[in-house]
Amino acid sequence: MQSKNKNKKERFEGLRAASSEMLDRISIDLSGFSLDMPDMRRVTVRGCKRIAYYSPSLITVFLGKKYISVCGRSLFCSAFSKKDIGIGGEIKCVFFSDKAPRGE
After folding, report:
1. Taken in order 89, 58, 46, 48, is the CA torsion positive or negative?
2. Distance separating alpha carbons of residues 68 and 50, to the nearest angstrom
């Protein structure tokens, strides 16, 4: 009985490690834009129209019909080109919305 529980625990630990590895990098590629987040300190958004809001705790980017917001601490724009933006800092969350969020 003890070896059966040990095997279950080993399988669970292996699954948890594999899940953790899969979540190390987040990439979303939808029609019109893409998002790449290699870690919790950097995110790149491609296909953006403009920066809608900018503060050290919230950066919101207009994508056309939707907005994408990056929340965190000490956020900054690390790169900006015609359609791409790089955001750095201590990223806590990324979310999509129909309206531009404002403020803290």
Report:
1. negative
2. 11
Instruction: Write the secondary structure of 69-103 as one string of H (helix), E (strand) and C (coil).
Output: EEEEEEEEEEEECCCEEEEEEEEEEEEEECCCCCC
Return the sign of the alpha-carbon dihedral for residues 102, 31, 80, 82.
negative
Tokens of 99: 């309206």
Record the tokens describing residue 103, joined without a space: 């403020």
Tell me, what's the pLDDT at 30? 73
Q: Which one, of 59, 77, 53, 63, lies nearest residue 33 by Cα?
A: 63
Q: One-letter amino acid identity for 2?
A: Q
| pLDDT tens readout for residues 16-52 | 444 344 456 777 777 788 889 998 899 999 999 999 9
Cβ-based neighbour number of residue 58 at 10 Å? 16
